[in-house]
Structure formats: structure tokens, C-alpha cells
Records
---
Amino acid sequence: MSDARNSILTTLRRTRDAHPLTSPASDFAPIEAKQWAADERLPRIRRLMEAVHTEFLDATEADWPAVLREFLVREGVGSLMYAPATAAGKRLVEGWDAASTTLIPYDRPLEDLKPQLFESIEAGLTTTRGAIAETGSLILWPTADEPRTLSLVPHIHVAILRTDALYDTFLQAMREQGWAQAMPTNVLLVSGPSKTADIEQTLAYGVHGPKRLIVLVVHP
Amino acid sequence: MDGNAPDFAAASRAALADPQLRGNFRRAMDGLMTKRAAQFADQDEWHGVRALAASVRLRALSKLPELLEKLEENCTRNGITVHWAATTDDANAIALDILHKANAKLVVKGKSMVTEEMHLNAVLEKDGIEVLESDLGEYIVQLDGTMPSHIIMPAIHLNTKQIAHLFKRKIKDAESREDAAYLTDLARRVLRAKFQAADVGMSGVNAAVAETGTLCLIENEGNGRMCTTVPPVHIAFMGLEKVVEKLEDVPPVISLLPRSATGQPITTYVNMISGPRKEGEKDGPREVHLVILDNGRSTIYADPELRDTLRCIRCGACMNHCPVYTQVGGHAYEAPYPGPIGKILVPQIEGLAKRGAMPHACTMCNACVEICPVKIPIVEIMGRLRVEAVKPGGTVKDGGAKANRTESMVWSGWAAMNASPTAYRIATVAMSRLGNVAPSSLPMLKEWTNVRTKPRFAGRTLHDLARAKGIPDV
Ligand code: SF4
């Protein structure tokens, strides 16, 4: 099929050179102009995400595992999968005393976990790399320790959001975090629980991804 | 009409006679237009970001061959296998080859218009491979055995009641409930089992970043993430125009696409994939393939005016705002891309012999041009294609296919009449005297009077009346 490659590229080059195209300069100012005061970002993120059924929990560095535990007990969530090698994962298991919620480590490849992940685990816990004020979006940065399916397959996704990494726009986040220099296997923006309007424009939540998205805000 | 050419006029007549269908479209399009308008309430912001997005797409086209090479180089470095397909047959053969090597029996698919263009599902089924659409709308359409009627909302032509009946007929143990939440949950249960078992996941691409070798996919449901994360092999399909130069070019496109398409500030998921599972990672596919499809796009690219067709980011907003689409619905076009973008893209891909009618399915109202987030001059392109259809020798596939001697003689006569004052005077006087007695069944009048009342011709021409008032002829 490399024939196809060469003939496509040759045609494109020849026809472009016959009629070159000059593009106007890309002026990013209309996006850069979108800014919010530091204390407005979180309320805006919250308002936009709540409008699409995201739920919020407030906590501090000291008490977030306890706030999470209380939530899981209150909602009757029987199992929570977590990333055992991350700092958050280590913090979570310290003195976990909720008998009603079993903690299950994501410590093997997906292939060995599929049935469990799809059929019995109720919730998954991940961290975030911040959030975006313009659209109300969490930045998820899956790693070898914190796999992609943790925020995808369980019915409830709990995401820890620290308030020191709130950006105005998607553009600002990727610039300040230097994404273009080293993209990981997968980056995600997540702006709510899974939803659809494919049946007569009626909004329904929880089609294929998580039915509920809980943002656990960790205030300083 | 050519033997195998779809008959748009006949299909539209059938659609117009279906009040249920028209009601479904009218309601949906009205809702989408209102929601979109709310997202662009700040007109300065709209104009600014729109100019930026248009420049991003234009810049990509201005460096298209170089960016495709760069995309290939960076994807390859990231571990993505890149394939090039000149035709849909080539693309289908590439897909089958990957599937055979993976010994695949079950494929799950996320929404991809390019694979609709390829009729990939039919090819896979013929090969004995089970293929399941997982976007809820696409799943519904697949169960129904029809085609998507909209590029963003494939099942928009059906209402809840019709979908409830369909599910009851096709899904084991389905209850007969006209309730979107219940039906959605039912699809969730069916498809989750399939995601888990699938050998290969397939998807489209909303934008491919040359700079980093990244494939961007946006969606609300999470099925796109499932298809690109859970099965051991992922195959992504893109039209060769989908490349952008830099990662920074993605935010302007992502900013306009969902707002234009469905009036939401952003989709639930923006999924950026830059390779297969790396050493030590616990999930993600072990193989990622990118199939880059030409299928006539390089021919579109050859014409400096028609080239603008390739700026499209497939938001579907032009459909939502098109008075013709809203009346006849998506199926009347019998094409993978309906509505305004379809009317300029499909004739160029499939040729004017087969699709010469499509550029005529337009009132030239310009609504699509006003809302297109990347400023494609859709109506101008439509005009060009009407000309290309009757003028042999252009670059468009089957250009001149509709050329017709009687028609060109009539037009030369028309031109001659307008060029000579005497001929013009004789013709207008004849019209004002004879127009009202001419029966509406005359061949030249019939097309018009079929669906309209014949206009009454005034007894005196405008020139006459003006002269009587002392206004001189110029
Ligand atoms: S032509 Fe413009 S409005 Fe229509 S789908 Fe493409 S980008 Fe959207």
C-alpha cells in the first residue's frame, strides 16, 4: 500500500504547488482573552459541571479519605477500585475502616481484571491534573499506575481535584503544562458523567461510561 | 436519471408525504438551532474564534502533504501503524487484513463517518465478522437496518415510540417502554458485554495532530473511549484532510465543534490518543492502527476553489440550519453525508454522473454559510458544481455528465435574446400577450407548475409602465 502513499502525496504536492494557498495568521487572542479571577474559576467549574449532573464533595488534605468514605457508606457503594502505587492510593488505604466498602487495587493488566471491572466493581478513584474554567472540564492524565479504565468502566467515577491547578482554558492548560513536548499514551478532558441525547433529543445519563461523576475537591 | 443514480426528487416527495418524519425533524432542528444560538450569544467571541478555527484549517490545507508526512512520522514513532488507502476498497482491504491477523470475530465501533463512506460494516459482515455500532444513535440505526440520517445524531428521524418498538422487536427480554432512560440503560447492558468481549475496536478521528502524532476524538457517551481502550486492537479511520499542524490548533476546533453541533459548551469526553499501551501500562490496546483515506479528496484538493470543501470539521450545523434538509430529512439524500456539506462533498467523491442532482437540492439561502464554524463558502461551491455538471473538462469526477444539447441550446437562445434589444422587446411583449393563455402543462412550465400555481403575467411589461411614467430606458 506504500504505492497509495506515494501517489497520494505526489498528487497533493503537485496540485498544491500549482495553486499554492496562503493561510491567514492564526490569532489566538480570542481564546487567550477568556480569563476568570482566581476565586471565580472553581465556582464556574462547579456550576457548569453540575448543570450536566456532576456531583461535588468538599474536603481538605487532612480529611479527604474520610469525606470519601462517608460518601461511599452513605450511598451504599460496596466496592471501590483504586491505584495502589499512587500517593492518593497510599493515602486512601491508610486506616480504611469502612467495612461496607471494599477497596480493590488495580494492580494487574486489564486482561486479568475485565470480568471483575465490568461486572462487579461499583466505583473507581482517580486523580486529575487540574480543571478548566471555560468549559467545566477535568484534566485526566492516566499513567502506568493509574490506568485509563479506572475512570471509564466502573459505574461511579470519583476524581480528586486540587484547587491549585485551575486553568482558564484548554489552551492555557496545554501550554502551561507543556503537553506538546511529551504527550502520554492518553489524555482526557472529562466534563460530566456519560450522557446521550440520541433518543429524540431526550438527555439520558450513563450510556456507556460512568453513570455518576463525583468531583472530590481538596481545598488547601 | 442514470440507472443507478439515487433519485433525490422521488425520495423527497416520499419524505414530504410523511408527517411523522417531518415532525421529528422540525422539532429536532428547531431545538438544535436555539441551543447553538445560545452558545454564540457573544458575537465578538464567535467571530474571533471562528476566524481562528478557519485559519487553523486553512493552514493545515496549505501544508497538507508535509503535515501528513509529519503525522505519519510522529505516529510511527509513538508506535501507531499508519496505512494509506487511495480508495474505499483499499481501506476495507486494510481493515480486513488487520482483522484477519488479529483473528477477530467481534468488532465494536465508535461513530465514524469515514467508515460509513466505506460501507465497512457490510464488508465485515460478508467476511463473517460480527460488527456492532456502539454510539447509541448508530446502534439504533444498525438494529433498524437503515442508514444514519444526520452525521451527529444518526437516529434523529425516529421518535421514542419508534425506538421502543424497535428494541422490543430486536433485543431479547426488552420491555415495551417508551422511556428514553429505560431504553438507554437497555443498550448499556447489551453493549457492555460486547465491549468486554470485542477483539478489535474501531473509531473515527476528529483531528489528528501532526506535531505530536495524536488522534483526538470527542464524544458524550463513553463508547468512543470503550472502543479505543478496552479491545486489544484499535483501528482509527480518517479522511486525509483531518490533520492539523500543532497541538495548540486543537482547542479552537474543539471549542466550535460541540457548540455548533449540539449547542453544548464541550462534549463529555475529549479523548487524545498518542499510541498503544506502553511497557508497564496496564490497559489500552496493544496495537493502534491509523488508516488515512483519500477516496477522491486529493482530486477535491486540486481545485483552488473546491478545496475549501476539505476545511469541514463535520459539526453538522449546516444540516440543522438547512431548510431543505429540515423538510426532507437525511434519508432522502441516500448518501453518507446529507444536507449542505453532503451536497458539496458527495458529488465530488462519487462523481456528478451519479450525484449531479445533489447540488440542485438547495435554495441558495446561505443559512449554512452564515453558521459554518470554519467559513466554508458552501453555496458558492454548490454553484460551481452545478456548472461543472454541464461543462466537460474540469477536475471534478464525471464533470460534464449532465451536459445536454437541448438545454445548452435554450441557454444560448436566452443569452442571445438578452443581448439584443429588439429580440428582448419582442420576447417580453409576446410573454405579456401569450403568457396567460399558455397551458400550465407545457413542457417548459410543467416542472414549475407541478407544485406551484402558474404566475399571472402582467398585461404590460415593467419597461412599458416605466416609459409611460416618463422614465427613459437605459
Ligand atoms: S460544512 Fe461547516 S457547518 Fe457543515 S458540517 Fe462542515 S464545518 Fe459544520
---
Amino acid sequence: MDIRAQLSMSFHMDKCIGCHTCSVSCKNVWTTRRGAEYMWWNNVETRPGTGYPLTWEDQERYRGGWEVSGGNLRLKLLKGPGKIRTLANIFFQPNLPTVDDYYEPFTFDYQNLFNAPAGDDQPVARPKSLITGEFMEKIVLGPNWDDDMAGSPLYASNDPNLKGLSDSQKEMLTKFHKLFFFYLPRICNHCLNPACVASCPSGALYKRGEDGIVLLDQDTCRAWRFCVSACPFKKPYYNWATGKSEKCIFCYPRTETGQANACAHACTGRIRFVGVLFYDADRIEEVAKTPDERLVEAMREIILDPRDPRVQEEARKAGIDENWITAAQESPAFNLFKKWRIAMPNHPEFRTLPMNFYLPPLSPILHNAKADGGGTFDPVSTEFFNEIDKMRVPVRFLANMLSAGNEQVVIESLKKQMAVRLYIRQQRVGDVGDSAVKNALSQVGLTPQDCEDIYRLLSLGTFQERFVIPETHREHLSTVDPRTMYEKRGTVGFGGKKREIITGRQW
Amino acid sequence: MDQVLFGAVPYILIVTAIVGTIWRFTTNKYSWSSQSSQFLENRTLFFGSFPWHYGIISILVAHIVVFFIPGVLLAWNGAPIRLYIFELIGAALGFLALFGLLALIYRRITNARVKALTTSWDVLLLIILIIQVVTGLGNAIFYRWGSNWYAAAAVPWMWSIIKLNPNVDFVKSLPLNTKVHIFNAMIFIGFIPFSRLVHFVVINPYKYLVRPYQVVRWYHRNPKTENVVQYK
Ligand code: SF4
Ligand code: SF4
């Protein structure tokens, strides 16, 4: 057993209101630099929708993630004879998304609003490209271009997760009274088997041993751009101005000092949870090869129980700090993913073993059939509990997105969430009936205590309960050189500004 | 004149290349990048980058190999038919590179995004490269003995430079075109540390073929900073 620690974020999708506060706080802290304008290390997508960059989940096009071929794990990007192919494509990558798959970063010519000469027309602020500095004809794409479905099913119908849905389910996209959508907030998953790391010819990407955060060494990156292609989640971004790739850093300067990540801290919906997981690094390859149906289960198995004294013993032997072992026992990530089994990874079938987890949305719980007949929701009826798979958000759709197509994993989580609601309703309103609650709990395998705990964490959780982040003691290893702090201001640690010696042009 | 150009200048440029590269690598690793612009434009790039890199790398490798074993080439070229084959392959690769380079230049001029990011160093570099490729092709096409000259004149001259005993007699009598080719090659070497050319001084990608897929770095374990762990 090779036990290691991993920081992990979980998302309660039901509560995400799509406000993008998370994206904006991330942007304000990390990516307000030239070349980084288009990067959204944290982004929130409307689902069904195309996502950002456009249809990133379509690995036929981008060839991100891993595949099992002949019993071996192989980067999908490699297709042919192996790593050689990676190097052969170093000059031109057929699967690289370009800026047109994201959007051309722009600003508006606001000055014109003030400086325009008096005239009959209202002055306008025309869009200006941040790459070329020229005026743009019109803006054709932006971050969240299809936010809230953008008033049309056109974008939504391109969602790769709609694969395998029946026509009547797909029809829900076009019928207003049947419509559904929800939000998918995404950051880098800081995977256990990261495809980005595996694809980098320079070895610039690495996983940190102490906390599992995947980082990109700016000094070693040579702009080969393989990480961008290989990551199935498209979370490394290429900085076209500096010629270096960048990615979500899990706000490690914050987590190292025990603070919550900027996105999670800012989250208005309080949907995010951050905690420590212990995993067995010896089993990564084996788990990553598990067939689709068992993938989520296998991922749960690789996570170790931090309350088990044997695991604690091993962790101490592996040099994990005592405060991490304590924190792991309070970890919301462990409870949500492994103990209660209600959270699951995003697209485990990409086989990177992503370490962020999502609680599938139970709302809107309007029954599909009821919605058709104009019926209303009867919270006491067990119909919902037993026919949870007939809900408005098709289980198939959620399973495509969250459990490699295994509907049982999603149904288990939805039923558990429903059981907790019944349990609490019985406590508050008392119209469900003790036996019905008991029946529901035994069906899903939750104890009353579990229900109390789930309710507490998901609904009332305080800051301290939602973010259990132990400090990392590496103060003595500070890499900041006080002599260069002044030059480096405004670069948030991403190297100096560029200045051309001949023309003096700067960016 | 030849004494200076082919006896002294090479030293200046070689020292510039070595010192400059080390200086840049130690003081400004962040700038060490191929500055790929595929992200901004990837259609024309396909017709530029592939032919250019594969053409020029094959030719470069041929130059380097012959640099070490000039005798073999001379022996091979002993029979005219073999000389023709060799020259023909060389010229074909040269045209491949030229085609790629022209596509890249065209792209840099016509694509607004790429143009906006073009620096003066890039322009200088493209000028150096186009001179190099065109004179190289000139050698191959107009002078039947191009490859023999390289093995019999340029290589001994290069070795004399390396042995710190420059002997310009080897190159003195070569035609102007060939001299430009040789001199420009030295400029190119001296130019390495100042431009995106540093991307060809790469060591890392070769490591990729042998290292395990995953890389893990530790702060608390030994060795402290970089430890490539095989967990695959
Ligand atoms: S989500 Fe992508 S960038 Fe993040 S660790 Fe996984 S493969 Fe790498
Ligand atoms: S801040 Fe929270 S609620 Fe708002 S979009 Fe982000 S994850 Fe959702």
C-alpha cells in the first residue's frame, strides 16, 4: 500500500444557481493577464449545453483521456505506436482546440461613449479584439454563450451527454413545460491518473505528492500544447501571449495556509465542499482500467477510510502530517463520495480518475408524467421514491455525465437524497408516516444518523464544516525571492512580463 | 576579409550562442518557449509547420552526420549516380522545407492574430532562415558538387575552428552563394539565445520516451523537488 493524500472538491448541483460568482472570483485572482483573458479555470456550464470550450466532452474530436487497449492504459491522443506519435505531432497537433473553440477575447471601446462628438445617434462601444487590438465585426462566441440554454434548444441539442436518450426525452428540450436544465460548475479535477501530466513531453506537469494538486511548471513548459489536447476536461489553457500553458492550481497558495479556494469561498449557493482523501497509489493503474460499469465503484474502493486505525498507521508511516490525518476524518469529500455514496465523479469513463465529485440534481422533482398531465407534486406519495428514474432530468443523461453510463449509481444517489427529504419532512411536518420513512431508509441503506448528517452538511453546513483544509507546512520552502517581487507584480507568479529589446513593445 | 569572416567571426558567434544560451536558461527560463501560435491559427500552420520541420530537421541531421563522418559521404559520392541520388534527396527535402517556410511567412503576414504577436526577433529569424534555405538549395541545384564541398571543404574548416586553429583556405575558393550559406549558418547559431530558436535546444522531449507516464513531485521527501515516481 502506498498511501497518499489528495485535496478534493465536491459540488452539490441542486444548489448551484448559475451565478458565476465562482468564475469571476477565480478570474479576478488568477487570470486577469494578457493571454489569459479567455481562460476560465473555473467555469459554470448550463446542461444540457455545449460547454466550454465547445463540446469538450466529444473525445472523438479532441481525443482527450485514456483508453484501454490490449490490457494496457494508453493515452487516447496517441492512437498509433505510442509515445513516438506524441513526439511526431510536436509541430502540429491535429486535435488541439483553437481560440475559435473558446472565443476571441474582447473588450469594448468604452472611451467612445465619452468622446463621441455630439450627434443624432447614441454613441456605442464597439467590441475590440484583445489579440489584434482591432475592432471586431461582431462577437460570435463568448464564455457561457449558451448560458441558461440561451433561449434556444439549438445549443443544448449538441450536448454529447444526450447520447442514448429516447426521442421523447430529447423532446423535453423543446417543450417549455417539460424543459429542464441545471448547472455544471467545473474546475480542474486534479486527477489521480492525469492525462495532462502523462502527455507532456517536457515533464512540466506534475502531481504534488503531499496534496495531489496537479500543477504546471512554468519554467519547464515549452509550449508543446499536449496537455491541452490530452486533458479530456480541457482544463489546461494555452497562454498565446507568453507561450506557456496554464491551469487551475486549486488555489494552492490559499489551501496551503488552510484557506478555502477562491471559487469555493465565494460560492453564493454554498454548493462546494473541500476536504482530504487518502488513496492507495499502488492501485491507480488497476482502477483506471476497470470496465465502465464498475468504474465509480472501483474509484470508491481506492479511497481509504481515514477512521480505520490501520490506515492511520500507514499514513503516519508514509509521512503524512498529523493535522492531515485529523482533517481526513472530518472530510466532507470522504463522506459524500465514499461513506454515503451520494457524490460521483464527472466523466469517469475518461479514466483519469477525477478527484472532484458531484451530487446529481434531484430538482426539479416534477415528475415527467405529471408535468404532461398538468399534475402537481405530492411530496408524501412514494411514487417519486419508487419511480425516481422517471424524473424530469433523465437519469440516462446524468449517468452519461457522472457515472460512465451506469444508471444505478445515479439512482442510488437520487434515492438517498429523496430519503433524506422524506426523513426531514416527517420530522418537520409529520405527514409522511414513520413506517414510510423507515421503509425508504432501509431501501437505500441509510441510518437516521446518516440522514441527520447529510441534512446538516448539505443544508446548514458552516464554513468550517464545508471546508476542512489542513495546512501544509512548507513555509521553509518558500520560492518567492523578495528581490524580484517588484518586477513580478501583476503576474500572480506566472513569470515576468515580456518586453522586446528592439522595438520596446511590451505585453 | 575571409580571414575575419571565417576565421574570427565564428568564434564570436559560437561564444555568443553558448554564453547567451546558458545566460538565458539560468536567468529567464520562463521565456524558454517555442511560442507556438497554433492556438490562434491552425489551418495554414499545417501546411507550414509539418513540411518545414521535417524537411529542415532531416537536412540538419544529414549535415551533422556528415560533420562526423565526412569520409563516408565522399566515398558514397564517388560514383556519379550515387551523388545524384544524394543530391536529389537533399534538394527534395530542401524544397519541402522551403515550401513550409514560405507557408509560414505567408501565414505570419496574412493572419491578423498571428501578425499581432509577431516580434522583431521573429522577422529577423525568418529572414535568416529564408536566406539559409535558398542558398542551400542554390548549392544543391547550381553546383553539382554541393555535398562534396560540404564534406571536403566546410567540414575540415569547421573542425579547424573547433581545434582552435582556423584554416580559411578550405572555404576561401568556394563560390559566393556557398560562402553566404556558411556565414549565414553561423549567424543562425549566434542568434539562438535571442529568439524562439531556443526551443530547439531541447533535452526534455527525449526523456519523454523513457520516463513513466506520471510525474510526482514531493516537498517533504528526498529528493526534495523532483522525483519521477512510477505509479503506472
Ligand atoms: S482535469 Fe485535466 S488538467 Fe486537471 S488533472 Fe485531470 S487531466 Fe489534468
Ligand atoms: S458561485 Fe456557486 S452557486 Fe454560483 S455558479 Fe458558482 S458554483 Fe454555482
